Amino acid sequence: MSSLKSAINDLVKFDEQFCTSYCVIGTDEAGRGPVAGPVTAAAVWLEEFDKKLIKNLEYLNDSKKLSSKRRKELSIEIKKCAKYKIIHLSVEQIEKYNILQASLLAMKEACSSIIKENNLILPPKILVDGKFCIPKYDIAQQAVIKGDGKSASIAA
């Protein structure tokens, strides 16, 4: 149990390195593996990394390391304490753009929604899970390989 609790501190520490200059928004996708079906991307902005957030998200980690029950519990907590947006792109859009580009487009739409719908005090910085940044997007970005195990915003 202690290793799970310590993960949140490392995840938050990663994001906090950017917080003096940026509002950090994490983004990740799901659904790239299925043969058919939509691709889904989410963007999450954790406004403040305070003790309450760390306590409420103490088991946050790469979702592949969590049980289904724990993922559901965390989903409820994340929705209470974060600004988030979830975008689905259809099979037709995947066929039009290809799966990678559709995933990145869904991430872009999710991040853009968060930026438009919130009064960000600092400029946004997008932490993108994976090895690619979002193309043709004039926002500060950083690709983070295996980011869902490194960044609280991406993991959320």
Please tell me the overall pLDDT.
Answer: 91
Q: Identify the quaternary structure here.
A: single chain
Structural class: alpha/beta
Shape: globular
* Helical proportion, percent range: 40-55%
- The percentage of residues in β strands lies in 15-25%
Backbone CA Rg: 15 Å
Give helix and strand order, one letter per element, not per position: HEEHHEHHEEH
Structure annotation, total helices: 6
Question: How are the strands of the largest sheet arranged?
Answer: 3-2-1-4-5
* Main pleated-sheet profile: 5 strands, mixed
Q: How far is the N terminus from the C terminus?
A: 19 Å
Question: Using DSSP, what is the number of strands?
Answer: 5
Low-pLDDT regions? 1-5
Structure in words:
The protein is of the alpha/beta class. Helices cover 42% and strands 21% of the residues. It has a 5-stranded mixed sheet, with helices on both faces. A hairpin with an 8-residue loop joins β1 and β2. α4 packs across α5. The longest helix is centred in the C-terminal third of the chain and has 19 residues. The N terminus is likely disordered.
